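Supplementary Note 3. Input sequence used for the single-chain structure prediction.
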Amino acid sequence: MARSVAAMVKGYRDFDADLPLAGIILNRVSERHAQLLRESLRAAVDVPVLGYLPAEPAVAIPERHLGLVPAQEATALTERMDRLARLIETTVDLERVARIARGAPALPDVPPPWRAAPARSPAVRLGIAKDRAFHFYYQDNLDLLSASGAELVEFSPLDDPRLPDALDALYLGGGFPELFASQLARNEPLRRHIKEAVAGGLPTYAECGGLMYLAQRLVGLDGRSHPMAGVLPGTIHMTPRLQSFGYATLISRRPTILAGAQERIKGHEFHYSRWDHPVSTREAAYTVRRRNDPRRLEGFVRGPLLASYIHVHFLTNVRWAQGFIASARRWRQRHHRRGGG
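The predicted structure, written as discrete structure tokens, is reproduced below.
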């Protein structure tokens, strides 16, 4: 890096002429190495070095098979951030960073797409699984659902014995159910309540971790089998290797609680587990298109239940979020609910 750093910085600077590169901060280098890099850059490219950060394990955020350990689980996170702040104060020219920031042009005001989708009254009550085991949601999805007429009601599959009262739909997002499989299995009252609610027709949408939780059982890498909600057929098996990863375009194969047939949306998948229930043309939710990949079937649809390994991003087709709210509103109307619960 003592010489190639100049080529790297010059490449970033010249790659996009509309993006001014005001300075760089060197990462995970010693003071001596930082000085060598400064000299190399000074001789080859006119981009100031604003400082450096040493390689310091004490400020690293721990990782696991799906990436960084979430903030909900990370221990001593505040202490790590405080230590990182002290490092930056010592090795980075913060006054110069602030001057650069103050001189930057204003960002354009980009209105959120949901301004075109005003909330309707009365709001529907949308149950959101939210705890240490389930916490991966695109915030855009939640914002759009709220703006489209949903009251987001959080509950914990780990700790709550029942679903919240008077729900009109259920959204089970991603997370790490495999790390909390024993505790999820012990909460048998909630598992039973969710199974009863789905069997009763409550519109239910599950992504990745949510799909895993709705299966009959979850088998960990240690071979231990844990009962789950029992809504979906088959068992989830954790695997030591990544099973699927990447962005995709989804085309709905049939009407669901989110969309009509042949509607498109974009999503992402990343999981170290496999579902032993074969995907069939009769039950599959989507045809998936990925770059350089053949089409494949994905997901599961049965009545008002939709489950898939893929996380969709509702801002790539806001009609899907509106479709979810419409399904919840139809459920509410059929059950003659009025008001907020």
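Residues 109 and 232 are 44 Å apart (CA to CA). The radius of gyration is 24 Å.
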